[in-house]
Write a structure and sequence with these properties.
Elements: H1 7-18, E1 22-28, E2 31-36, H2 37-53, E3 61-65, H3 70-81, E4 85-89, H4 95-105, E5 109-112, H5 115-124, E6 133-136, E7 150-152, H6 153-156, H7 165-170, E8 177-181, E9 192-195, H8 196-209, E10 217-219, H9 227-240, E11 243-246, H10 253-260, E12 264-268, H11 269-285, H12 288-303, H13 305-322, E13 330-334, H14 340-348, E14 353-355, H15 367-377
Parallel strand pairs: 1-11, 3-4, 3-5, 4-8, 5-6, 6-7, 10-11, 12-13, 13-14
Antiparallel strand pairs: 1-2, 8-9
Helix pairs in contact: 1-2, 2-3, 4-5, 8-9, 11-14, 12-13, 12-14
Length: 379
C-alpha cells in the first residue's frame, strides 16, 4: 500500500482493498441503508472529477453549509481530493456569519443542504465575489427554481468527464491546506487552517488516544463545522474502519441512538448534558417505584463494588438501553466542558467520558443552537 498522503487517498486505498465492506449508513424513510467503501469512493470520485473539470484545484477554497448527512461527507472528501481547502459552516449560522466566512476565504464553490440554506447564500452572494458555483444536495421545493449559478448535486456529479481524479489525489502534498475552521461565536474573525500533514498527525495521535476498532459503530450527532466530529469522528472512523451512522434528521438523534446502540459516541457538551437532563426528567415523571429504583441504582452505581454490579444488572442496564448507551464502550467530548453533574451521572452508569482538550477552542456549535436542537430531538 502506498504511503498515505490524505484522507481522500485513504478512501481510494480502502475501496481497492476491502471495497465491499460497509463503512457508513444513513437513515432514509425509516430504513438504514449501507454504504460500502466502493460506493463511498464512487460518490467522492464523481463530485471530485466534476470539480476538477470545472477548473477547481489547489489553492481554491470551497464551503459546505449543511446538517450532518452523507452528501456533506462526499463533498468534503471530494474537495480535499482535488487539492482545494474545505471550510464547513454551521448550518445555524446567520447570513452575516456565512458572508464573512465565504468572503474572507474567497470560497469559489458552496455546497448547500437544501432550500433553506440556498436562500441564505443567495441573500449574500453579491458580497462574495469569488463565489461562482452553488451546489444543492436536496432539491425538494426547488423544482421550478432556475439560476445559472446553481445546480443540484446529482446534476453536478455527472459533469466530470475524463478529469484525472487519481492523479489529483496522488499529487496532494503534506503542506497543502486541507481545511479551514472558524471558531464559533463571533461573526468576524480569522479562520484557522490545517494542512493535510497536520490532519494525518492528528489522526496518528487519535489512534493512541481513542481505542476505536474496525467494525465499531458510531452515530454522527454533530455537523462538519465541529472539529470533534470532523477529525476525531469522521476522519478517525475512516482510518480505523469504524462504521459511521447518519441520522435521518437532527430531531431524530435520540431515537436513532436508542435504535443503533453505538459502541462509540463522540459529542459536544450539549449532547451529553442533554442526555443527563433527559434521564433526570424521565425519572421524575416515572412512578414512585420506578423513581426509587432509578435513584437507588445511580447511588449504587457510583459506589461500585458488588452492589454496583447488582444495580447494573437490575436497573442501570435498562437506563443505558433507554438512551442508546447500552453497548457504549468509548465516550468522548470536545469543545466546552461537560458539566460535573453529567460526568458523575455517566460514571454511575459505568461510562467515562474522555475530554479532548487538544482542540476544544476551535470546535463545537453555538451552545444555544445545540440546546434547542437537542430539546427538539427528545420532544
Amino acid at each position: 500500500m502506498n504511503e498515505l498522503t490524505s484522507v481522500s487517498a485513504l478512501v481510494s486505498q480502502r475501496a481497492a482493498s476491502i471495497g465491499s465492506e460497509t463503512i457508513m449508513r444513513t437513515k432514509n424513510r425509516g430504513i438504514w441503508k449501507a454504504v460500502t467503501w466502493e460506493q463511498l469512493d464512487a460518490h467522492v470520485r464523481a463530485i471530485g472529477t466534476a470539480l476538477l473539470a470545472a477548473g477547481f484545484a489547489r489553492g481554491d477554497t470551497m464551503a459546505i453549509l449543511s446538517e450532518t448527512r452523507l452528501e456533506a461527507v462526499y463533498a468534503d472528501l471530494a474537495i480535499l481530493g482535488c487539492g482545494a481547502a474545505s471550510v464547513a459552516i454551521n448550518p445555524d449560522d446567520d447570513s452575516d456569519r456565512v458572508q464573512h466566512i465565504l468572503a474572507s476565504t474567497g470560497s469559489r464553490v458552496a455546497f448547500v443542504e437544501n432550500e433553506e440554506q440556498l436562500d441564505k447564500i443567495l441573500t449574500i452572494r453579491a458580497h462574495c465575489p469569488a463565489l461562482s458555483h452553488i451546489v444543492v444536495f436536496d432539491m425538494k421545493g426547488l423544482r421550478d427554481f432556475s439560476d445559472a449559478g446553481c445546480v443540484s448535486l446529482a446534476a453536478f456529479a455527472e459533469t466530470g468527464g475524463e478529469a484525472d481524479w487519481t492523479g489529483s489525489v496522488q499529487a496532494i502534498k503534506p503542506d497543502q491546506t486541507a481545511m479551514i475552521h472558524f471558531p464559533p461565536g463571533k461573526i468576524t474573525g480569522p479562520g484557522r487552517g490545517m494542512t493535510h500533514g497536520e490532519v494525518l498527525q492528528a489522526l496518528n495521535a487519535a489512534r493512541t488516544r481513542l481505542a476505536i476498532h474496525r467494525h465499531d459503530e458510531r452515530l454522527a450527532v454533530s455537523n462538519l463545522a465541529d472539529i470533534t466530529e470532523r477529525v476525531w469522528g469522521l476522519y478517525l472512523a475512516l482510518d480505523r474502519g469504524c462504521i459511521s451512522n447518519y441520522p435521518e434528521a437532527p430531531d431524530t438523534v435520540i431515537e436513532n441512538l436508542q435504535e443503533l446502540q453505538p459502541t462509540v459516541l463522540g459529542a459536544d457538551a450539549v449532547v451529553w448534558n442533554h442526555l443527563h437532563s433527559l434521564a433526570t426528567a424521565r425519572a421524575a415523571a416515572a412512578t414512585s417505584t420506578q423513581r426509587m429504583a432509578y435513584e437507588w441504582g445511580m447511588r449504587a452505581g457510583s459506589r461500585g463494588g458488588p452492589l454496583g454490579l447488582l444495580a447494573g444488572y437490575f436497573v442501570l442496564h435498562a437506563v443505558k438501553r433507554e438512551f442508546g448507551l447500552n453497548r457504549l464502550r468509548l465516550a468522548y467530548a470536545g469543545g466546552a466542558s461537560v458539566s460535573p453533574a453529567t460526568l458523575d451521572w455517566a460514571a454511575s452508569l459505568g461510562l467515562a467520558i474522555q475530554r479532548l482538550d487538544d482542540h476544544g477552542e476551535i470546535s463545537g456549535q453555538p451552545i444555544e443552537h445545540r440546546q434547542i436542537r437537542m430539546q427538539k430531538a427528545s420532544a
